[in-house]
Specification:
207 residues; 5-stranded mixed sheet; 47% helix; disordered C terminus; alpha/beta
């Protein structure tokens, strides 16, 4: 009998979230085999003159609409940055909590990633600036147009980090080593660029 081909992995549709209490960045990417496609991205806005509960309610309702429209299978969210002031960290934590409630209501598994982990995942440098993160996200995902805001590109970076970590976990479980082009289920284009960025600490050069 001819060998039976292994089943293709199910598509993974990841919602990345850059939380906030006035602006909330979001990005949805889908991985099918080794192909990664951007399904949507943007920023949700609340009136800064409103009180905190009102703003969180506005952002939560808008995020529910994003989830209903794009139907992600999982979510990834940036964790609170502990280098901020206590007041800023508390505020961001409240915004993060509201976003987590929305995705939990939808039954989505959600994973948190530290800010420096996300930056290192997409640029190779844990202290990269937001503009550098945005430039690398555009390159990795093949975006011709710049995302609406840095919040949106940060959210796409969180989603990309989640896929990269999943690929790295797969390779670790199978003993195949670190992610590289065409291995571990990661898109060859993305894996090669990530490997180059990790090696140099700078975004990979265009050829």
């Amino acid at each position: 009998m001819p060998p039976v081909a292994p089943p293709k992995p199910a598509p993974r549709r990841v919602l990345g979230i850059d939380p906030g209490t006035r602006l909330l960045g979001w990005g949805v990417i889908e991985q099918r085999g080794r192909d990664v496609e951007v399904l949507g991205h943007g920023v949700l806005r609340a009136n800064p003159r409103d009180d905190l509960p009102t703003r969180l309610g506005v952002l939560a309702r808008a995020l529910r609409e994003v989830v209903a429209r794009h139907r992600p299978s999982e979510a990834a969210i940036e964790e609170t940055f502990h280098g901020r002031s206590a007041r800023a960290a508390l505020s961001l934590g409240e915004g993060r909590g509201a976003a987590i409630v929305v995705v939990a209501e939808a039954g989505l598994p959600v994973t948190g990633y530290a800010n420096n982990v996300v930056k290192r995942a997409v640029t190779g440098a844990g202290r990269a600036g937001k503009e550098r993160v945005q430039a690398m996200v555009m390159r990795l995902l093949g975006l011709k147009d710049r995302p609406e805001t840095l919040d949106a590109s940060d959210a796409l970076a969180v989603a990309l980090c989640h896929l990269q970590q999943a690929a790295a976990g797969h390779l670790k479980r199978t003993g195949a080593g670190l992610p590289s082009a065409g291995r571990g289920g990661m898109s060859p284009r993305i894996a090669a660029a990530l490997k180059a960025a990790d090696r140099s600490g700078r975004p990979a050069r265009r050829r």
